[in-house]
Design brief:
It is a single chain. With 137 residues, this protein is an alpha+beta fold. The protein has a single domain (2-136), classed as Homing endonucleases (Endonuclease I-creI, Roll). 51% of the residues lie in helices and 18% in strands. The chain has six helices and four strands; from the N terminus they run αββαββαααα. A four-stranded antiparallel beta sheet has the order 1-2-4-3. Helix 3 (71-81) crosses helix 4 and helix 4 runs antiparallel to helix 5. The longest helix is centred in the last third of the chain and has 17 residues, at 88-104. The protein starts with a helix and ends with a helix.
């Protein structure tokens, strides 16, 4: 039941993306931002990850936070809520990552030219739908 609730929360306030660190290959990141800390505490308690506080740039802004999880934990999170997602772009990205990310990602970070082609094609399809990933695989 909590996965259904979480999918609705994620549809409205969540983000699924691929991030990069130190110019290396991209990895999955999911996050939810809110001014209601208890919602984010629920996500952290249920799915792991961490919560960070946002800086308030104006005195009249409410305090806000973000919950985030990355890498394999992000994929596990997406797999749990995938059957209940409704927002089309988040659903497309979640399907693409849960079905393909691990198969194109080398644990040691060393890629043959073909593996690198598939990895980069997945990233291209993630950010630019209808690119060449499906024709390559």
């Amino acid at each position: 039941m909590e996965d259904i609730y979480t999918a609705g929360l994620f549809d409205g306030e969540g983000t699924v993306t691929l991030a990069t660190a130190n110019g290396k290959f991209r990895y999955p990141v999911v996050s939810v931002s809110s001014t209601t800390l208890c919602l984010l505490a629920f996500l952290q308690q249920t799915y792991g990850g961490h919560i960070s506080k946002h800086k308030a740039y104006q005195d009249h802004h409410k305090p806000s936070w973000s919950w985030k999880t990355t890498h394999d934990n992000a994929l596990v999170f997406l797999e749990k809520i995938l059957p209940y997602l409704k927002e089309p772009e988040k659903l497309r990205r979640a399907i693409l990552l849960t079905q393909n990310y691990k198969s194109v990602t080398q644990r040691n970070g060393k890629y043959t030219s073909r593996q690198l082609e598939l990895k980069l094609a997945l990233e291209q399809e993630f950010f630019h739908p209808s690119s060449s990933y499906e024709s390559i695989t």
